[in-house]
Amino acid sequence: MDMTQEPAAAVLQLGYAEAAVLAVQREMDADPRVVVLGEDVGRGGIFGQYKGLQQRFGAERVIDTPISEAAIMGAGVGMALAGLRPVVEMRVVDFALCGMDELVNQAAKNRFMFGGQGRVPLVARMPGGIWDASAAQHSQSLEAWFAHLPGVVVVCPSTPQDNYSLLRAALQCGDPVVYIEHKTLWGARGPVDESLAVPLGKAARRRRGDALTLVSWGRQVQVCDAACDTLAAEGIEVDLIDLRTLWPWDREAVLASCGRTGRLLVVHEAVQAAGFGAEIAASAAEATGCRVARLGAPRIPVGYAPVLEAQSRVGTGQIASAARKLLG
Amino acid sequence: MDPEISAPERLALYRTMVRIRAFENAAEAASQGGVSAYGQEAAGAAKVRGPLHLSTGQEAVPAGVCAHLSHADYLTSTHRGHGHTLAKGADLGRMMAELFGKASGFNGGKGGSMHIADFSVGMLGANGVVAAGLPIAVGAAHAQKLQKKDAITVCFFGDGAINRGPFLESLNWARVYQLPVLFVCEDNRWSATTASGPMTAGDGASARAAAMDIAATQVDGNEVFEVHAAARRLVAEVRAGRGPRLLHALTYRVKGHVSVDPAAYRDPAELAAALETDPIARARARLAAGGIDAAALAAIENEAQAEVEAALAAADAAPWPEAGAAFTDVQTTGAGQWT
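Predict the joint structure of the above. Result:
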């Protein structure tokens, strides 16, 4: 949509959830085809990420649904084919698994399989990542599953600004989008410039340095940033890239940085084995010959007790160690 | 016979069934050796390759239901969807071309039999996943309601589908929001190579619909005029905004699960009994008894056969898709980035 048609843009201080509410509100104001459907959305969603939208737009456009993930996702596909642009709420990525046929075999395949007869402009919000003390079924990072899936866009915003701008971009793009907010970023505050458009597929450089390229996304970017403080104190300046969109991923930005630094470390909250970090590391090594390393969680379910949960977290110490090792 | 149905309408129903039968007979012949299954090797020479699910013997259900629909109405189908697609008004030639995998097919050769679709007539697609059409159908109907359209959605599924979760989720959804959707259970008694009865608790689709306060009507699915009459009433109720309805049509899958499946697991007596209730033979007898000239019926049959033969020849002669088409219509965002 044309951003210039909006009221004079202000830079607001918003939380990550508030930024998402504003993004959906702006899109619903601009486009009557946008609807929201999912559990508890009328009350604002369990994270407040739909707060006030039903009051503003009514129960016909912000639709409270039964606990029926297959029907929520599948109805989203049917609505999209019939001309709407649904925001499909899955509560958490772990529950989205109950709607996988509808996402993988239907939403992602529809356009190609039917020879381009239809489009499925659908944004499936499925918050991911470790949610403190929530154990194995509420703490997964499954973005690599979806990055592996032709037909969908995969977004993992890390800041309020990106959540605002990327959610709007996702709603405008016309493709099925897997939109993975982080379960523990909802209260994170930051500036949100309403006029700022962030295109899908463009990474953001969070720090500039020449020693090493560090690529991450989602909440893990914050952890990486803290690790970069430690490294900076040692005189190691890191090029920190927030990927923001996993598919299509910003190959140009990552490869340019790797070409300059000669070293790449990819860090993610997801399990390291067969993670998306492996894809980026392999691509960078093939294209630039740089040295690469990956760092993710061990391949274990996330445990409940603090000491168990901690085994699945990738902390600043590990990141700094991996960076030093790569430089050594 | 239903007094509300005119002679031209009766002949139209007969024509729809005969065209479906002729299309599927031809596709079946062209598919032998097209897939390795049931102990057979793929021959490679088959024109119709891969799994081909035939609805032979079930033609009365789509014919009777779709006679009440316009192109503005949506339809979702199953893996056994040739009849639904033809009855909804899709072009037979482009369907055959799709089965041949040719560029001129509805999907440009990207879908084949299991994914036949013609969005231009409201046919939103056959589906390779059992029960997958149900949630899509309620979503389409939900959109129609929000858009305040007069149109409705018809959702075909089989008896096997009622044992999948999306069946329950979708019926509940349709009733909760009072959506304009007609569910049609084409009960052909078989779930792939397993009889559905022993795998299904309770009394089937109608009983499950009743449990969710959706009015259900059971009908002999091999009597096209009965299907037509029941569907007329149900479609009118759905169109009037009275919420979802379910039509439970009892029929029989005459062929195997796929075209190369000889269905040797089945009691021959069961098949023989079913063949006695063939919907086309029954309709023909009723039409003849009603005074329709035998020559008129033969003309319909000959026209269908000629149409199918022309479709076969055209599909055979049509070009394959360009290899580059494998890279089109995947997604817009990130198009061109394949690795």
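Residues 7-31+46-318 of chain B form a domain with the Rossmann fold fold (CATH 3.40.50.970).
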